[in-house]
């Protein structure tokens, strides 16, 4: 089931004609989140294959410390980044940083990409489990970003799936974590 959802959503995402506009709307919502304003250290990702483009956050929030993921054969390692010029193609053809490793326990917010999310914060990624393994290692606020069509009602989950606390789309913010609902 996850495989067929992944295939359908990826096909739709690859054809999404309003990715740039929708990414800007998501950025606007993220910038206004109180949690993002308070955070010192934020982990982003380098968008790949029409994923939500969150790179403008790097420039708009220049007072923050930014991290980007670097992959090993099994894990994601957070790497501190001072410039978007020092990236090279990594393991899956995704641009990855060079630089100093950062302790996952010291991250305030992780912006999490996905192929799809459900209304309970669970995600479908590319099927390798990298983000699930990484998110277990940090107490950071986990913010999923997605186009509206990437958020589904519900799909099957497994015991190792780690949900996000919040999902931001171009049209809404879905607060999953109980204590965020009143904010």
UniProtKB/TrEMBL annotation:
Biological source species: Hydrogenothermus marinus
Keyword Kinase: no
Cofactor: Mg(2+)
Family label: Belongs to the 5-formyltetrahydrofolate cyclo-ligase family.
GO molecular function: 5-formyltetrahydrofolate cyclo-ligase activity; ATP binding; metal ion binding
Record GO biological process: folic acid-containing compound biosynthetic process; tetrahydrofolate interconversion
Highest classification ranks of the organism: Bacteria, Pseudomonadati, Aquificota, Aquificia, Aquificales
Protein name: 5-formyltetrahydrofolate cyclo-ligase
Enzyme Commission designation: 6.3.3.2
EC top class named in words: ligase
